[in-house]
């Protein structure tokens, strides 16, 4: 038994992808996004679980591609930045690459010639997002450059929505889709009739923007993009796939007026029994949970006392007087009838649910259960 580990429910991953696939049009592909160590769930564990379920996988960079290729030969989309020196390796590993500026075209074309293959590329359009991608005003130049590079196989055009989770204000999403559709028509009319598109992640699919392919990330892991979309699609029954556990390292009783942790941010108001949990911000348990977070012990909620340190934090054991060293502590997930979900932690920290899971240290062991 590991003192601390991240447990991944493989059955939940499969359930979630199958449920999300039901949102798609017949024949549309479901790509599992496993970047960021599979949103913190463990790239290896998730790929092994979804190998027979997903139509392919999406990663961000060359390191993730290498890890993916050690596990799967399925379709691999690399939609982040790859250095010029790594393009040839990426193509050798069978990656489909993103084209987002003119400088990428000759680099990918030359690497393909050296390998004797025709690289598959996806044209990224920056449709009112302001990240990687060709601006619509520059699209004619990009089209001419692609025409002059017949060695490349353009397999799709794609974009990212900027604010689609906010179901109360979808005006920008409509502006983006209208602009992208105009760009797509220009590309199709320029020599790529019927070129496929992909513009949706989990949130897009839930909001009815569905193309030839959908990049499912967040939803696979049992998280919804927003509370509004969770209510709208409660029928999906997405199941959180992660359970982050540790065990009490020490249990002791402190006298009244005793400090707990760095900075003297908590002083015991009375005699209190506390427990020491051997996890901290180095493991991804955010320092912002100091005097704010809660964990589960024996099914009861126990408050974090004082500051979260690099490798440990203290909790109030008043609710569990029988607590003892090595008792299980749940930082994220269920225990008995209690549950701590990523959205709860995100709310305390003023962030988003998938930052909570993605930031959990990759050094912690992941275990499929």
Account of the protein in words:
The radius of gyration is 24 Å and the shape is elongated. A hairpin with a 7-residue loop joins strand 14 (300-305) and strand 15. The protein has two domains: 10-228, TIM Barrel (Alpha-Beta Barrel); 242-340, Lyase, Ornithine Decarboxylase, Chain A, domain 1, CATH 2.40.37.10. The strands form three sheets. An eight-stranded parallel β-sheet has the order 8-7-6-5-4-3-2-9. A five-stranded mixed β-sheet has the order 17-16-10-1-18. It is α/β, with parallel strands linked by helices and 369 residues long. The chain contains twelve helices and 18 strands.
Portion in beta strands: 15-25%
- How far apart are the termini? 13 Å
Q: CATH superfamily membership of the largest domain, which one?
A: Alanine racemase
Number of domains: 2
Taking strands numbered 1, 2, ... along the chain, how are they ordered across the largest sheet? Answer: 8-7-6-5-4-3-2-9
Give the proportion of residues in helices.
25-40%
CATH topology (level 3) name of the largest domain: TIM Barrel
CATH class of the largest domain: Alpha Beta
Shape: elongated
Structural class: alpha/beta
The topology string of helices and strands comes to EHEHHEHEHEHEHEHEHEHEEEEEEEEHHE
Report the CATH architecture of the largest domain: Alpha-Beta Barrel
Taking all Cα atoms into account, the compactness measure Rg is 24 Å
How many beta-strand runs? Answer: 18
- Biggest β-sheet description: 8 strands, parallel
Uncertain segments: none
Tally of helical segments: 12
């Amino acid at each position: 038994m590991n003192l601390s580990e991240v447990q991944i429910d493989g059955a939940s991953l499969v359930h979630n992808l199958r449920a999300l696939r039901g949102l798609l049009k017949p024949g549309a592909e479901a790509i599992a996004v496993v970047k960021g160590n599979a949103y913190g769930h463990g790239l290896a564990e998730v790929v092994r679980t979804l190998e027979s379920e997903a139509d392919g996988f999406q990663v961000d960079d060359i390191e993730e591609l290498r890890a993916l290729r050690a596990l799967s030969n399925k379709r691999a989309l690399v939609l982040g930045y790859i250095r010029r020196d790594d393009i040839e390796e990426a193509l050798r590993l069978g990656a489909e690459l993103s084209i987002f500026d003119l400088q990428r075209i000759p680099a990918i074309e030359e690497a393909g010639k050296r390998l004797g293959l025709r690289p598959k590329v996806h044209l990224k359009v920056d449709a009112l997002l302001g990240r990687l991608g060709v601006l619509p005003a520059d699209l004619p130049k990009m089209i001419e450059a692609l025409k002059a590079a017949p060695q490349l196989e353009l397999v799709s055009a794609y974009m990212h929505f900027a604010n689609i989770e906010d179901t109360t204000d979808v005006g920008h999403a409509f502006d983006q889709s209208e602009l992208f559709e105009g760009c797509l028509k220009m590309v199709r009319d320029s020599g790529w009739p019927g070129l496929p598109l992909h513009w949706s992640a989990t949130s897009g699919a839930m909001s009815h923007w569905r193309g030839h392919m959908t990049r499912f990330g967040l939803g696979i892991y049992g998280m919804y993009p927003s509370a509004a979309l969770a209510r709208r699609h409660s029928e999906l029954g997405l199941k959180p796939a992660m359970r982050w556990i540790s065990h009490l390292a020490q249990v002791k009783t402190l006298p009244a007026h005793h400090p707990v942790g760095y900075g003297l941010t908590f002083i015991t108001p009375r005699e209190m029994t506390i427990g020491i949990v051997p996890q901290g911000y180095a493991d991804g348990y955010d320092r912002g949970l100091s005097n704010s977070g809660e964990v589960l012990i024996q099914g009861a909620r126990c408050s974090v006392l004082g500051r979260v340190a690099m490798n440990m934090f203290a909790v109030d054991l008043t609710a569990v007087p029988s607590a003892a060293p090595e008792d299980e502590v749940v930082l994220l997930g269920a225990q008995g009838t209690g549950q701590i979900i990523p959205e709860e932690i995100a709310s305390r920290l003023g962030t988003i649910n998938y930052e909570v899971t993605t930031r959990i240290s990759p050094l912690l062991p992941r275990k499929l259960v």
